[in-house]
# Entry
Amino acid sequence: MKTGFWKSIITATLLVVASLVNAAEPIKIGSFLTVTGPASFLGDPELKTLQMYVEDINAKGGIKGRKIELIHYDTGGKAQDAVSFVKRLIQSDKVDLIVGGTTTGDTMAVIPDVEKEGIPFISMAGAVEIIEPVKPWVFKTPHTDRMAAAKIFEDIRKRGFTKVALISGDGGFDKSGRAQVLKLAPEYGMTLVADESYGNKDTDMTTQLTKIRASGAEVIINFGLGQAPAIVTKNIKQLGIALPVYQSHGVASKTFIDLAGDAAEGVRLPAAALVVAEQLPDTDPQKPVLLAYKNKYEAKHGPVSTFGGHAYDGLMIAVAAIERAGGVDRAKVRDEIERTKGFIGTAGVFNMSPQDHMGLNAAAFKLVEVQKGAWKIIE
Amino acid sequence: MPEQLFQFLVTGITVGSTYALVGLGFALIYNASDVVNFAQGEFVMLGAMAAIALLGAGLPLPLAAILATLATVGVGLLLERFAIEPALGASVVTTIIITIGAAIFLRGIAMLLWGKDFHSLPPFTGDAPIQLGGATVLPQSLWVLGVTVALVVLVRLFFNRTLIGKALLACSFNRAAAQLVGINVRMMLRLAYGLSAGLGALAGILIAPITFSSYEAGVMLGLKGFSAAIVGGIGNPMGAVAGGLLLGVLESLGAGLVSSGYKDAIAFLFVLMVLFFEPTGLFGHKAAERV
# Structure
């Protein structure tokens, strides 16, 4: 009788302690990013953003009293490394969900594992093929390349041009963007008169542009990332080609303007509102979110880019979903991510659904032009 | 069409001259030690990045360029003293692997120092394109071309006309024999690394306004420069320049006349063919292994 009493006391104590420990156990968010390598200018701000906001959330007491633990690996832009890191995240680190995948290549490579294991995954890569067809566990936060191409074509149509020359790089983003341009051109009544490519580490594209000059094109579209589009822009000026130039959202950072210099004047591109946050009207619901992120990032790390914003959006959507799900049950979190409605992020207002695992519409893109070395909204 | 063709050629030559300039550095160290220095591309990157950083710190361009070159020479000497010299008796393959390690190390240091962004250097004499017939060139490309020619002449004179140059060559032919006739082999090796680091840095500073630079820029430039050097016959400075120009023109013609998607494939196919039929390169010494 007496021992039975003590036993039950001990058991009860243990249970209480166990539940306390359980409550304090951190929520594990896994990430794999391209922090080094050619796409490091994407992955670097993404990692900084994740670290900054995880620290921030933890300082404010975490999610319902549970701290977040960020576990991250650098893929260096190698898809095969991304696959093994994601396996490690799922199997040995036992993370609750994954926010990562800087490039389309990395993201597409890990999708089979993510789907097989059934773990919520929010990607920061651009290509539309990530969410089309819809994969149950895969979400993404950046605009798609199809939206970018559509935005560009709308503006070209407005200006009354029909003959388009395309020049693109050889990376995953470039190729996917090229495919969207080829697909959408007929829908907007455009004829593609040239379709040139270059290596992303090439240092001179005048040969391709000479061909474009002879093709009778009225506008030039360049789909690319990194320094190559800046070289293309400089080469266009060098050859004295006076056609309007469109770049993709892949160059929406100050670096592009710095590298291309004078040649960047007049270049138009679709970009997330983040690069022109100050120019938005005060009534824009996105403005406070954008300025808050921008100021916080710039106070610590220097000039902001839209790429880090994708990480902010991904992390915040995940955190909100975990809060609503009341825990880290994978299926519940997945459902809650899918129910994200009216979330104001840096890329736009997200409204996800079972058919749409990104949730952004065309309004999320602003068409900007480089004027006097700065981005200017031209709508 | 002829007008287009002319632009393709001009582009090829300007791109090729950057490869040639990088290839020259490979030739120098190879001549002194029979080793292919895979950190050569990193010397190029260091020169460019250091010049950009110094310019950013407010120094005038010529001074920044000189200091950056000297700093890179210093790095070359340190590399030789602390990585190559301790392994002096080791095989050529071991030394080559050491240079690969050094390249990765230098890239890492550059990343920590200057971050991962691309940076640009202003062109030396403006960027108003110059019309050449139907084609256009940037003034900076003429700088690259001019300096390449000047350096080739200098390097050639150095190896053929000066005692030090000949001593350097002697070290690569037979290190023991060179030592026996009183050549300070260690000193020669240091000289070779210092010189080729300086050459690389100069190349980097000249190229940076056209191609931009980042901590990783040395990888691709090193690869192309190396291809140029082996096509021309490694160890032959003239060969490196010819190889570089050939590679550049082939890439440009491949992109212009065939397809831009295959331009690297066309150029590298050519490199393979050369090595297949002329393993010592187009202008290399025929295998003269003295027994």
Summary: The radius of gyration of chain A is 23 Å. The longest strand of chain A covers residues 27-33.
